[in-house]
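Milestone 3.1: sequence recovery, worked example.
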């Protein structure tokens, strides 16, 4: 089955940077879109950034100018470069992908999440 595995989370001081990675594995024909969500304690999960197969990007207003999403199709991997981190960025970050196992429609898959903690 398809799996998404996040990595790169950790503890960082305010103003620092982290680079998250999410690698998809399994029976994959194509990945149509990928994105990153985050969820802080007591809050609803929110979209952080998304990228289509054609390279179109969308960011939450709170991270524009600080975060950058990219993908390496040869590695079935999506990245989230996070700069100028703030304590309010602290959350569990989840990878999301629309993946087709065969030609045709895709299905949404989620990673288990990786913790990002920004200290002040």
């Amino acid at each position: 089955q398809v799996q998404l595995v996040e990595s790169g989370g950790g503890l960082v001081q305010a103003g620092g940077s982290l680079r998250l990675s999410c690698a998809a594995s399994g029976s994959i024909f194509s990945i149509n879109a990928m994105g990153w969500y985050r969820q802080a304690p007591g809050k609803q999960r929110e979209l952080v950034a998304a990228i289509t197969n054609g390279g179109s990007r969308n960011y939450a207003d709170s991270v524009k100018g600080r975060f950058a999403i990219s993908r390496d199709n040869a590695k079935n991997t999506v990245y989230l470069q996070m700069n100028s981190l703030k304590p309010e960025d602290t959350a569990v970050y989840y990878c999301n992908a629309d993946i087709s196992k065969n030609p045709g429609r895709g299905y949404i898959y989620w990673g288990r999440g990786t913790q990002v903690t920004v200290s002040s």
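DSSP finds no helices and eleven strands in the chain. The CA atoms of residues 98 and 108 lie 5 Å apart.
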